[in-house]
Amino acid sequence: ILLIGCTSLLRPPSGSAGITRCGKACYSSCNPKVCIVGSGPAGFYTAQHIIKARQDVEVDIYERLPVPFGLVRFGVAPDHPEVKNVINTFTQTAKHSRCSFYGNVNVGKDVSIDELQQAYHAVVLSYGAEGNRSIGVPGEGLAGVYSAKDFVGWYNGLPNCRELSPDLSCETAVILGQGNVALDVARILLSPIDSLKKTDITQPALEALAQSQVRRVLIVGRRGPMQIACTIKELREMVNLPGTRPEMVATDFEGVAEALKDVPRPRKRLTELMLKTALEKPGEKEQERRNKASRIWGFRFFRSPIEVLADPNHNKIAGIRLAVNKLEGSGEGAQAVLTGEEEDVPCGLVVSSIGYKSLSIDPSVPFDSRKAIVPNIMGRVQQAAGLYCSGWLKTGPTGVIATTMNNSFDTARSLMEDMDSGTLDLSAAKPGSQSISALLEKRGVKPVTFSDWEKIDNVEMMRGEASGKPREKLLKVEEMLQVART
Ligand code: FAD
Known about the structure:
The protein is of the alpha/beta class and 486 residues long.
């Protein structure tokens, strides 16, 4: 009776394993089948937890690009290789006998969520936050204004940012936003080229940065030093960045030392480092280092953009007009309020780093456009049985990989609870990738397996070795597919 509702009649009997195209054991299709959309940290950590929690579940991961790992590959700064070590754990998960990777599948376009739900017992959406928040001021569209998402994508080899070619011929760059991504961008703009040469930054970005005229980077925030959103590691890297010196506005720090008493320890340490950098007279050695520095970075607090100013002769930017704010309230909840004063800062490059944003990829899936997340309770998508979400799509685009890991484990726990309690109906067998592969083939979509990705990985590492880099990333999807198919 069990076999009647079970497509395993066509496949090896339960428990015995056949071999699939990617060389994996092919389990009975009576097993519960879960599909994950997106192969960033959220996708992989959700998969890892599910596979570990139950011995029978099969997990398929669908990814839009031919290459896995999401922002670990395309977001994390090239000079943070240690952060990318999580790839080793993800690779172990991908190679697990009950996990399969299908790259080059754009869910929402190549296959719908409804089709995935037909084929799997549960679908987990983990496709991250691929949009960006706009600044919403006149002049935002001028040449010379970039979103941090595109700028980071450019130096990290995201295929659709390949042709960004930012104009780095100006002396001053302004970054809007004071989170870790803003500091990543500032650091990459100001790092000595010799240290970038040893990273996996793309060759075009390396060449452009080698020619860059940018000497001064101002990192602008609406509120004050006590509200800054970066963490101490990133700030320390700025403070110690070879060849640079800080340029702060001492009056921005009035009253800050006194307000430090009752704040949590991480913020206290971060603020103390800022105070030291901004106000204390440096020691002899540090002074000498600063005297030799040819590049400058600094925070500009209590400022919001009003307009990007155009150069009258060209269609590019000449500067940015900032509103001067004051704070109402204190601590994390303090509000920036306009004073009516304005300030123009001449600059030739503006990078807006005010946040990533999730997008809806399928109209059938509930989506909260205001919060730009999929509405959920503990990862269970509201009013959509069998549908779950994890990662930045679940929480909004904040938090490091460890935060994403925890929220993905929580989602996996919810899913496991629903399987165990019977809330998730496992009584009918589901075809899983068998039916989705057939659909994709009909639509002319050829997925990239994990072993295909390993070919790309090998080529990238070989190319990198030739120039003393850990890897030289392939920059075009077609090139990736060509290597995958050899
Ligand atoms: P993502 O990593 O974005 O993964 C989403 C995946 O879904 C992507 O692979 C994407 O291609 C895929 N996808 C999108 N749409 C579709 C679709 N329609 N169909 C199929 N697949 C799709 N954290 C740290 O701990 N340390 C750092 O140094 C650090 N640096 C960062 C630097 C930057 C610039 C950014 C933006 C973030 C950084 N983070 C860092 C945070 C970390 O990257 C995130 O916490 C984490 O990547 C979020 O994981 P995610 O899986 O939700 O999203």
